[in-house]
Amino acid sequence: MEFPPSVMVKLAELLRPPEPDVLQGEDLPPKDFEITSTRSENPADHKQEHPRSIEEYEEQEARRAEAQSHAGAGVGGRRAPEYTMNYQQAVTAEDVFLQIGHKTPSTASCENLKVRIKMPGDKMENIDLAVDKSSVTVDSSQYHLKLPLPHGIDPDASKANWDSSEETLILTLKLDREFDFVNF
């Protein structure tokens, strides 16, 4: 027995599960609160600059990305200092020449995380440093930096030095990872 196409369409509609009722915005019950944002309190941030060319648009986006890329940017009118993070590994002749040691060139074999924070115009006496297992906070009259760390550290085994010639704070943070006993 052959079925005409109209019967097949009706059969397909019967086998399809019913669609749930979808509530639209006006169908939802009203709430007694209002959602607002206080992310940007500066009125100058609200004005919209309209670029006239692609180059102007790219420059605006680059400025926005630069402003947002700094951890702690704009806190209390202070700037976020430039910083670098490097892993540090203690290597012996056995590791390099004889390759007897268990160390590899990967970051899994590194013992320390070295953070260099450039703070031009500041002095060591003006800097407040707070280090916990997962972040570093640096405060001074000119700079503020709240830096989340990629790995847990041991604050008690870490060191901080001030290089007055380069006006740089150098943090040597002892890594404290879960499986370090395997790598060392």
From TrEMBL:
SUPFAM superfamilies: HSP20-like chaperones. Coiled coil: none annotated. Residues 15-80 are annotated as: Disordered. Residues 42-67 have a biased composition (Basic and acidic residues). It comes from the Eukaryota. Residues 80-174 form the PIH1D1/2/3 CS-like domain. PANTHER family: DYNEIN AXONEMAL ASSEMBLY FACTOR 6, TWISTER. Belongs to the PIH1 family. This is PIH1D1/2/3 CS-like domain-containing protein. It comes from Plutella xylostella.
